[in-house]
Amino acid sequence: MTLPIAWAAAREAVFAAGSAAAPGPVPVPLAASDGLTLAAPLVTLTDLPAFPTSSVDGWAARGPAPWRIVGRVLAGNRAEPLDEDGTCVEIATGGMVPRGTTAIVRVEDSTTTDGAVTGEPRRLPDWRRQGEEAAAGEELLPAGIPVTPGVIGLAASCGYDELSCRPAPRAALLVFGDELLTAGTPGAGRVRDALGPSLPSWLRRAGAQVVHERGPVADTLEDHVAALRGAIDAGAQLICTTGGTMHGPVDHLHPALAELGAQYVVNTVAVRPGFPMLVARLPGGQFVAGLPGNPQSTFVALVSLVLPLLAGLSGRPLPTLGTVTLGADVPGRGDFTHLALVTLAGGRALPVAHVGSAMLRGLANSVGFAVIPPGAEGREGTVAQMVPLLDGERS
């Protein structure tokens, strides 16, 4: 009998395996980089801003008032220097501040008479100095972070046309089970497949590109092997399966992995619910994440093994655990880590109801899993680690 690996050790093992197999960086146009992973630090190609720019509409002036108007600078135009005291140019917001400028006077703080301007500049300068935000060559963002619209905008402002990124891991989903319905109301011994419609969204939110889906896959060894080979042929680097992780009469995942020559990275984890979970590596380098068939257990396996594995394959750090203050007692699970679904109320984490392995109601009302270590109990008022559920933003 295989002894389950500790939950924390399992997370680290699959993350290390994924990191070792992560593909190299590729150049990606800015517009196509959203959701990928930055493969190199984002370093400024120029000062930010590259030249001094006006923050307001007004007058760029040199010396004391009154100032004789000698020109105009609009955004996008090169500014000629102000060489004489007592001169100014009309300037628009975003316009290049001429060399020699000693003050910018807002249009609403100025008066123009016979081609001369008078007015009082504000106490704080109304222009952005060259390099005020960053100096050329300064590191703005580290490698290993997700590319977001904010990152894309910052890169564009620095002069980048493309970014060095880790490509999104390609994932497949195989749902095993003769008992599953894909439409209609459950009954007569058949249950509705809740994982086929939902797991691809979770994988995408974790940064994966879902390239292949199949289910339900019939409960035979031949169909399991054929389904795995189909996912390999589709180019998946990570194949997630649901069900069949035990050793019952219709559990064919382990024999299928043996037939394909797979080696286990993790085989069963000391966590409740969901301990019969696994990650194996195929001879071609693909990973198979075997998730239990009971829905809540599936999602425990997802946050325990799949998310760390995807982080490694993406070139990202191991997902960090948050902390919460428990608002009620949470039982332990003996020698197993207990991942307990919780919601937040008044800044404290409260256990939710309907948390059986086959239930999804509790998951839908939760923000994450409180982590109760082996041999411990979660006591009201104490701080516990928490695995957050993915929200609506891309990871």
Automatic annotation (TrEMBL):
> Could you tell me what reaction this enzyme catalyses?
adenylyl-molybdopterin + molybdate = Mo-molybdopterin + AMP + H(+)
- Which EC main class describes this enzyme? transferase
**Transmembrane parts of this sequence:** none
- Asked if the Swiss-Prot or TrEMBL record annotates the protein with the keyword Transport, the reply is no
MoaB/Mog domain location: 172-312
Kindly name one Pfam family recorded for this protein.
Answer: MoeA_N
Q: Which domain of life is it from?
A: Bacteria
Biochemical pathway: Cofactor biosynthesis; molybdopterin biosynthesis
Q: What is its EC number?
A: 2.10.1.1
**Cofactor(s) listed:** Mg(2+)
Q: Which Gene3D superfamilies match?
A: MoaB/Mog-like domain (3.40.980.10), MoeA, C-terminal, domain IV (2.40.340.10), Molybdopterin biosynthesis moea protein, domain 2 (3.90.105.10), Molybdopterin biosynthesis moea protein, domain 3 (2.170.190.11)
Keyword annotations from UniProtKB, A to Z? Magnesium, Metal-binding, Molybdenum, Molybdenum cofactor biosynthesis, Transferase
**Homology family:** Belongs to the MoeA family.
Q: What does this protein do?
A: Catalyzes the insertion of molybdate into adenylated molybdopterin with the concomitant release of AMP.
Q: What is this protein called?
A: Molybdopterin molybdenumtransferase
- Taxonomic lineage per UniProt? Bacteria, Bacillati, Actinomycetota, Actinomycetes, Micromonosporales
